[in-house]
Amino acid sequence: MRTTMNANNIYGFQASSLNGTAIDLAHYRGKVLLIVNTASQCMFTSQYKALEEVHRHLHDKGLEVLGFPCDQFGNQEPGNEEEIGEFCERNYGVTFPLFAKIHVNGEHAHPLFNYLKHAAPGLLGSEMIKWNFTKFLVKKDGTVYKRYAPQTNPQSLISDIDKLLAE
């Protein structure tokens, strides 16, 4: 798996799918991406429903929602990859791609999230992710457009997504 940071866009990164297959993010070239660190036992877990609705509504227009389960915040994603996939499908009908559980902060943070955090810092310039369901909107060229707080409802991003889809 590639672990070096491509300073220009996300297309130099790889991530493992829930079944362990290495996925080059270059596969999503030309798409608008909504990248989210997720968890199954979080106060924001119900956002899976809104993420799926946004995905279904805009997928044919060029949007991909990518979910990255993370257990770094209060042990809110304790399951293994199979359990995560089953939970998301059973409870929220998730059809968008989910990846293997990762770290988003610290020395073991996935390189993709290091890039995202650097490209779109949070409040007061912080590069830390504060909680699950932090969202990053990525343009078709693989550069980061904007970062959104965990409490931001995915439905409220539709106007920004539409703007990027039209570019």
Automatic annotation (TrEMBL):
InterPro entries xref list: Glutathione_peroxidase, Thioredoxin-like_sf
Sequence intervals crossing the membrane: none
Alphabetized GO MF terms: peroxidase activity
UniProt entry keywords in alphabetical sequence: Oxidoreductase, Peroxidase
Pfam families: GSHPx
CDD domains: GSH_Peroxidase
Domain of life: Bacteria
Assigned protein family: Belongs to the glutathione peroxidase family.
Designated name of the protein: Glutathione peroxidase
Species of the source: Herminiimonas aquatilis
